[in-house]
Amino acid sequence: MNIYVGNLSPEVKEEDLNELFSQHGKVSSAKVIRDMFTQESRGFGFVEMPAQAEAMKAIETLNTFDLKGKKLVVNEARPPREKRGGGGRGGGGGRR
């Protein structure tokens, strides 16, 4: 299960998330999302846990958990938005 972790302190690293979530079960991956140019944390990340029961327990336990001075927001990650087809402008009426 993919888990969203928000309201991260700038000091939080992938290792911190991995260690924290590992207390509740097996962690496949932990990623802090960083700005493409500055490499500074954007304040959120994702943790992947293969066992749904363990992931649900981690979400329940760690939501509002204080990590490095900030209360985490932890919930099931939403699936990525599907690419929207088409594009361009809608048809408009012509001048008369």
What is the topological layout?
Blueprint: E1 2-6, H1 14-22, E2 29-34, E3 41-48, H2 52-62, E4 66-67, E5 70-71, E6 73-76
Antiparallel strand pairs: 1-3, 1-6, 2-3, 4-5
Might you state the CATH topology name? Alpha-Beta Plaits
Number of domains: 1
* Helix/strand class: alpha+beta
Strand order of the largest sheet: 2-3-1-6
Going by CATH, the architecture would be: 2-Layer Sandwich
- What is the total tally of β strands? 6
Low-confidence parts: none
| Cα distance spanning the termini | 57 Å
Mean pLDDT: 90
Quick one: CATH superfamily?
RRM (RNA recognition motif) domain
Explain this structure.
This protein has 96 residues and is α+β, with helices and mostly antiparallel strands. Strands 2-3-1-6 form a 4-stranded antiparallel beta sheet, with helices on one face. It has a two-stranded antiparallel sheet with strand order 4-5. Strand 2 (29-34) and strand 3 (41-48) form a beta hairpin. The N and C termini lie far apart (57 Å). It has 2 helices and 6 strands. The relative contact order is 0.27. It has helices spanning 14-22, 52-62; strands at 2-6, 29-34, 41-48, 66-67, 70-71, 73-76. It has a single domain, classed as RRM (RNA recognition motif) domain (Alpha-Beta Plaits, 2-Layer Sandwich), CATH 3.30.70.
What key phrases describe this protein's structure?
21% helix, two-stranded antiparallel ribbon, globular, alpha+beta, 28% strand, 96 residues
Quick take:
The chain is α+β, with helices and mostly antiparallel strands.
